[in-house]
Amino acid sequence: SSTMSLSEVEVQSACRAWEKIYVDAEDNGTAVLVRIFTMHPDTKSYFTHFKGMDSAEEMKQSDQVRGRGKKVFSAINDKVQHLDNSEAFLGIVTPLGKKYATQLKIDPKNFRIICDIILQLMEEKFGGDSKASFEKVTNEICTHLNNIYKGEGW
C-alpha cells in the first residue's frame, strides 16, 4: 500500500526514539556499520574501500567508515522527518529504492540487516520501549523498499 500504517502517537514516539540515537549520528552510524561488516562480512563488497579492513577497531577509526555511517543515519533521518506525510516519505524512499535496485544492485536483505542492527543498538542504549516504537518505522521502510524492488523485477 502507498499509505503509512503508523498512527500519530506512533509517529511521535518513533521520532523521540530516533532523536536519541541521531544526536550522535556519526558515532552511532559508525557503530551500526562496524557491526554489519563484522557480523556480515559479505556486505563489505558493496564498499570497495572497506574490503581490506578486517578489525572492528580499524573500521571505527576510519574516516571513510565514519563518513558513511553518518550518511546512513542522515538518510534515515530524512525519512523519519516525513513519517506523518506518506507522499513526502514515498517521495524520498522511492527514488532511493530504485537506485539501490537498478544501479547499485544491493541485495534487499541488507536493509533488514541494517534496520535490525539499529534496533539492537537502540535497545542497548535506550531500552526496549525505544526499540519497540522505532521497529514500526523500520518495518515501513523495509516494506516500501521491498515493494520498489519487486516493481523493478527482483
TrEMBL record:
Residues 5-150 form the Globin domain. It catalyses: Fe(III)-heme b-[protein] + nitric oxide + H2O = Fe(II)-heme b-[protein] + nitrite + 2 H(+); H2O2 + AH2 = A + 2 H2O; Fe(II)-heme b-[protein] + nitric oxide + O2 = Fe(III)-heme b-[protein] + nitrate; 2 superoxide + 2 H(+) = H2O2 + O2. Keywords: Heme, Iron, Metal-binding, Oxygen transport, Transport. Pfam families: Globin. Gene3D superfamilies: Globins. Its EC number is 1.15.1.1. The keyword Iron-sulfur does not apply. GO terms for molecular function: heme binding; iron ion binding; oxygen binding; oxygen carrier activity; superoxide dismutase activity. The keyword tRNA processing does not apply. PANTHER family: CYTOGLOBIN, GLOBIN FAMILY PROFILE DOMAIN-CONTAINING PROTEIN. Belongs to the globin family. Involved in oxygen transport from the lung to the various peripheral tissues. This is superoxide dismutase. It comes from Panurus biarmicus (Bearded tit). The gene is Cygb1.
